[in-house]
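Comment thread on ticket #2218

A.B. wrote:
> Attaching the input chain for the structure job we discussed in standup.
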Amino acid sequence: METAPRRRSGRIGRKGGEVHFLGRRLCSWRVSVGEVDGTRAENNRNGEAHGGGFGPPCQGRVRAGVRCGQRVVRLGTRFAWIAVGLVLGTTGAIWYVFDRVATGVVEQWGTRVAEVQVRYDSARLLQPLEREIALTRQLADSPVIQALARHPEDPEIASDAKAEMERFRRNFGAQNYFVALRSNGAYYFNNAEDTYGETPLRYHLSSDDPDDAWFYRLVEQRRDFHLNVNPVSEDGVVEIWIDTLMRDSMDGEILGVVGTGMELDTMLAETAAIEQPGVTTLFVDYRGAIQLHRDRDLLEYSSLVRPEGRKSRLDGLMDDDSSRERIAHLLGAAEAAPGSVQTDFLTVDGQRRLAGVAWLPRLQWYEVTLLDLDQVLPISRFVPLLIIVLIALVASILLLHDAMRRLLLRPISALESAMQSLKTGRYTRGELPAASGEMARLVRHFSDMADTIQAHTRELEERVTSRTAELNRLARVDPLTDLLNRRGMQEALEQARDRAQREGNRLSLLWIDVDEFKQINDAHGHDTGDAALRQIGCCLQEELRRYDVAGRWGGDEFLVMLYPATDEHTERVAKRLVSRVSGCVFAAGEPVTVSVGGYCVQGEEPLSRILRCADRALYRAKLSGRNRSHLAPAPTGRGSGCSDEPSRQPRQQRDDRDRAEREPQAEEPLPNPPAASGDPVDQEHQGKADREQAGSRRRRHR
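C.D. wrote:
> Ran it. Output below, let me know if you need it in another format.
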């Protein structure tokens, strides 16, 4: 373990190290630390050459039960020797008994069982299928059905064929049939419920439809017989379809395909699904695709049309290439010698299984039986072995558990608790118990690392707190004018309103807008406009009391909050600000003026209404000719004071006024001011007239 912290002026140094356990590095750590006094410090802690720990060299002392300079047996080595001894002893005993007793029995008796089982399973499958296969051949050879295949449009032949099909349907075990004609693709079908007895013609096959590919593939291969496992889409029942080619009795030409279906569950119940411990029976077609298996997830549906690479094949159950080669050899040998049973040992699902294979030429399927000899053969002679293994395993587990608990588990559990305490910030040095060997060094490493992390965490928390406060200030201050920005002003207004409401005082809000600010930017550039805004900000700070608040609301708009305030004080401050700005702020040598709207009110009013009323007062000041202030009257009752109707947005007001001033105006007498009872600001339909009056006053004022 080593640490090498370096601190430089104005920079952040790093401190780190590594933790070793059982001779391997568990983790490394590195903590960033900051400059404290501007000096560079070095803090080297020796110990890595003496076991990787912190602190000075051992110098011959005994440290946590491990003497320095002496070769000791590591904890990992001790556990390794224990595990090796247990494995070798148990394996030797098991192998000695098994090799002498079980090998001969498995090789001789298991082969006989496999042959008997294969023949038995083949007979169980052939019994229900042979009758159905014979009936499908009779249906394919029926003159009436062949006449329908040659003349599908003849209604008399179609009627006779329908009756013939129904006669065969009642004889089939599942009482269903299908007839597919090659000439026009007609597909006839009826089920056990006689759903389509009157209209057995269901549809016409198409070579472009993937669902009909089975028919064309079967005709293309010219195989007289085929068994196909396929789910029925209407009711979800999985069936085994017996497909038989219908050939012309005269020239052998393929006229179509006929057949019937049997429910898979019925077949499985009679063959592969019979519960026999240690015996797995499955049937595969001539290509090796699985057709019957107790696990329905392994069945290969529509194997005739599915690509070879996507089929669920028998060799896919094998675990290694050697087993796949052996099963392929068994299939070839069984087909070459029908009626014989070929056997060999394979590896399936990680276990050694005895496989028996037979070829069923009438079905063109293979019957495969896999025997788990550990279950099939009696195990009574292996009881002594099982007892020995059990005693050995129990004793080994107890010994290993006791050793791990004393040497490893207890210290690790305490170390984990200390890590959780460190994670939550509640760790105190001295919580860890005494340990020995490498665990002792690990505990010391963790304690030193935890102390360092806590120290630097406190330092980083102090920095974060300081910088967070600075960021909060910057987030609420406008960088151009050094006044509050919109967020900061919003918070200040909410706090002042709440205070006014609690104390029962009045507060005032002044809304300030720079006159013709767009023309200043357009004529002299944005730098001149920014300089004017900075000067206005300085004027606001100099003219206000120390407990009043000013902020830049956005663009060329400023807000001033006066608290406590009265109408007289608000009016004086507004006029003083107008006068101060016009006399002190210049843009390219020309004076800059502002218009001010004010509103003084009790704190009970909502902030949105206060802002709206101050905005309306500013609008009236603009309409009056700019470079002046206007104070909105305080509300005295229902319907008095500032209206609750939404005010025009300041930017829209200025754009409308500038557009009105640029339009040519006829020199005519100024209209009489509105009556006391009328309010042009609250009358939206008089907006254009107000803007024209403001523009006329502006020109005359100049």
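A.B. wrote:
> Thanks. Noting for the ticket: The mean pLDDT is 75.
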